[in-house]
Amino acid sequence: MQTPSDPNSSRALHHQIAQDLTSRIGREEGYCDRLPSEATLCRIYGVSRVTIRHALQHLENAGLVCRRQGRGTFVVPAAERTTAPQPDPVMGLSDILQARGMKVETELLAFGLEPAPPEVMAALEPDGRQALLLRRRYLIDHVPVALTEVYYPPAFRAFISEHDARVHSSPRLMVDHIGLRLGRTHLTVDVTEARHALAAELDLPCGSPVMVMRRITCDDAGTACEHSTLLARPGIARLSITAHGGNLPDTDFVPRDPWPPAG
């Protein structure tokens, strides 16, 4: 049984299998014109069919194979493969701040399956009443900047470790670890008052205004795969959103210059 899994890797098992299969395609017998069946790959790697299908989806997204229902998975000839680079996923808050040269501290406040609030149930329609919650706080120069509360379908728990949740942004988790191709997203921006717990976490007086940005992200098949809420301190940054035709909008969280803000 082939076991490519590295227990120290932050990459999901299906992603590691996809990488191993990529190294075999066109180089080993049985991987040149057509890949082994899903059942055979399950035996080779000692994993479930769901994991193998996620791995094959990675290969198909990369243009290495094409899957034909009822016939199998076929290798795309090298001359016919598309070589255009894949676009970077939509950036998360930590990606944006780090790209601007800010030293960002990320604290993982909660990680695991939790009862899903009604708005999450309505958006994700998870099996059962639970969803996977990632709750994080972001600080710049030890100043609390924002909190994020991200809910995923409960099945994602099999592909995201606590380490992943601590160090990777939500878009990168969905693209690099779950293997999704992101489609449309829906954003709403509002303002709320910081109640006791939130005020303490953002180091604000109780009742202070807090910017709230909610995001529902769908995959390229239109299935909702993320319900995210960003809660940000007032007066430290501005939020910029730019749409490009039918593509996902670019969002930018621009810290005040100079940083930190006075007062």
From TrEMBL:
CDD domains for the chain: WHTH_GntR (cd07377)
Domain HTH gntR-type stretches: 11-78
UniProt keyword DNA damage present: no
One Pfam short name: UTRA
Source organism superkingdom: Bacteria
Keywords: DNA-binding, Transcription, Transcription regulation
InterPro entries in UniProt: Bact_HTH_transcr_reg, Chorismate_lyase_/UTRA_dom_sf, Tscrpt_reg_HTH_GntR, UTRA, WH-like_DNA-bd_sf, WH_DNA-bd_sf
Protein name according to UniProt: GntR family transcriptional regulator
Species in which this protein is naturally found: Komagataeibacter oboediens
Lineage start: Bacteria, Pseudomonadati, Pseudomonadota, Alphaproteobacteria, Acetobacterales
